[in-house]
Amino acid sequence: MATVNLVSPELNFSSFGRHIVIGTTLGLSIAMGITAGMYITKKMLQSRSDEDGRIVVCMLELTQEMRELRSVIIRLESSLEAQAAKPINIVKSSGSLKDSKSVRTSSDDEDEFYEAPQDEEILTMFSKAEQLESQTSQKVESSSQDAIKSIIKEVEELHQDKSRTDKQTERIQIMLKDATDKYPCEAELWWRLARAYSDLSPIKAKQEGEEKKKDLLYKGLAAAQKAVELNDKLSNAHKWCSIMLGSTTEYESTQDQILQGFKYKEHIVKAIELNHKDPTCYHLLGRWCYEVSQLSWWKRKAATAIAAEPPASTVEEALDNFLKAEALQPGFWLSNTYWIAMCYYQQSAYSKSKEWVTKALAMDISTSEDRESHQKATELLASL
């Protein structure tokens, strides 16, 4: 078996290809370094003091992983350079080749084979580099999810506080606006932002006027629609889309009010399909049924002109939904109790109406809507 040394660009491990591989790996290193650096810097600047320890640990872990990656790249470069400088063995076909890894070339006189360079080590290095990249990405994602959970926890604690002040209500809205700017693809943050705008709107109406309230309500509608766009399988996203559609109806033309009514029902029915144990969804469907049952003749006429099948419902359907909500969570909402009383009143069931309106007046007032329902309940009782 004869062996000769060749310096041939055709048979050599291509320097062009080698530079591509080295450039790719260096690019990966630089990109990961920049990403990790930006992430660490941003977290250190924006995180609260109680998260500092966790961020330092994360920074140390990422630093160690970058060192390991640089080591892999250096070894890869050395391996590629060694392969490029290694002479290629030409083997004449005079014996068994079954144990050799070879590539065949044509010749006028005889068949020749040359031994292919071994690349297991290179593949191993690439695999390790990919593993390091995946581990780094997972840690960044995990850290983001932890931050989102922390924000949601704080928001829910403030929202459920019955003694919440106006400043705390505004703080919730600001927190969620900042959070959606930072994590724009989280539907759980967007529907909560819609709720925050809704809670803040009556406060700002008193402070800055009706136009400010209108502005906040439409921002809330946009936030709820964004939540549905991001995750149309999220019941709360559909629920708050319905609520905000209902809240902005008074600012729309008669035609748009009718169109929004269809959208309102579509979203609340979807919310119930996704979560049939939420009493608020049944209450909202009951409100739609009641309002449709009370439409004036000229609005019904307008609806007929707009839609082939105008909305239709009855007080009985409204009452059925209010009672479903009450069965799921008795006494969960002053407004639901009032509307049960109102439905019985419309059916001339005055004794039942008085029973439920008395219950409503005995309940605590927690929101501006509760105050409104309490006032209406007082007026209803006076008429019984």
TrEMBL record:
It comes from the Eukaryota. The chain crosses the membrane at residues 20-40. One of its GO terms (molecular function) is microtubule binding. It is found in: Cytoplasm, Cytoskeleton. Keywords: Cytoplasm, Cytoskeleton, Membrane, Repeat, TPR repeat, Transmembrane, Transmembrane helix. Pfam families: RMD1-3. Gene3D superfamilies: Tetratricopeptide repeat domain (1.25.40.10). GO terms for cellular component: cytoplasm; mitochondrion; mitotic spindle pole; spindle microtubule. Interacts with microtubules. This is Regulator of microtubule dynamics protein 1. The lineage of its organism: Eukaryota, Metazoa, Cnidaria, Anthozoa, Hexacorallia.
